[in-house]
Amino acid sequence: MARIVGGLTTSHIPAIGNAVPREQELRNDPYWKEFFAAYPPAREWVQSVKPDVAVLFYNDHGLNFFLNAMPTFAIGAAPEYKNADEGWGIPTVPSFKGDPKLSWHIINSVTRENFDLTTCQEMLVDHGFSVPMELFWPNYSYGNMRTVPVQINTVQHPLPSPARCFALGQAIGRAIESYPEDLNVMLIGTGGLSHQLDGERAGFINKKFDLLCMDKIVNEPEALTRYSIHELVREAGAQGAEFILWLAMRGALSHKVRKIHSSYHVAISNTATGLLVLENAA
Amino acid sequence: MSQATRTMDIEDQIPGTYVFDGEAAMKGYALNKMCFSFNHAENRAEFLSDEDAYCRKYGLNEEQRKAIRDRNVLEMIHAGGCIYYLAKFAGIFGLNVQDVGAQQRGISVEAFKKLIKSQGD
Description:
The complex is a heterodimer of chains A (about 280) and B (about 120). Chain A has about 280 residues and is of the alpha/beta class. Chain A has helices spanning about 15-20, 25, 35, 40-50, 100-110, 125-135, 160-175, 205-220, 220-225, 230-235, 245-250, and strands at about 5-10, 55-60, 75, 80, 95-100, 120, 145-150, 185-190, 255-270, 270-280. Chain A is built from 11 helices and 10 strands. In chain A, helix 5 (about 100-110) packs across helix 7. By secondary structure, chain B is mostly helical.
């Protein structure tokens, strides 16, 4: 049977996509030093648990999906996912391998639990997906990893509630654990933490709220599912609502988890960055 | 405006924050569709060769065309723009989210960067 080996969360700021190819030189750069210093322990952990597949919860920022047809929850079911020009100059990266058989198992399983996902046999993945893969598999070394992208709408309100995203994660966790193949599955939740790009409140960051989220998500994630989207926007900023992606990932882990590593840093670009490594506790 | 297309009541609104809801999505459809087209280099080049013709091709209204001409992000948002698509417009001119943030706050980029950093103290 498939096993969930643990979960990672990380911010996916586009500026990181530009910086990652220059990580060696930026390790001593005052702006980047603290950010990059947080990642080696997470990478070592990734190598140690030998994942075969990554199920990655992220949000599309207008590369694959537009307002003509905007799914609340979409899942890739393709043998390959390509990255492409996002318009503002982040480098395009090598494509990602899919695992359509696992994708369809998840689709069938969660639909029986009343989660009706949009299924995508072609799907471009943007920085929300690629930046975390580049961070955990440096120098684009993700070539052997298979992936299942789970895309959650954070572009057009109404967004799905934190509680709904957490419950979707729980259903996906059950689906993975009922998959008959002998596979190590890693979960990744991307985005956040607090930031706001638009309006006169642009540049808003809420360290106190971020640290509360990073703490509660480990042992008490249900407490965070009580927030409404509106409260998340108020506390974490308009784009800080991406925290629902962390909650979806957390839902797929077991009730009890162990924190292996964490880091919080203000800020890269306009965004407070957070990193968490969690393992299922027996 | 119709309550049915809004996701929050007026009294719940967060100062300086615009929720991109059904009402905004309808209002800004043409503007956002044009910005979405900027994922492709040939469309960015076509826009730059005749900006107003490109805006007309996508059916932008006068308010949206003025906001584009003025490079004014807050005006674009008031005209229904969604920041995720507007960022692709800003990118044509080499502007990143810090430039865009500073413009909306009405402060310099340096002051904006300081503001961001200070919130980590």
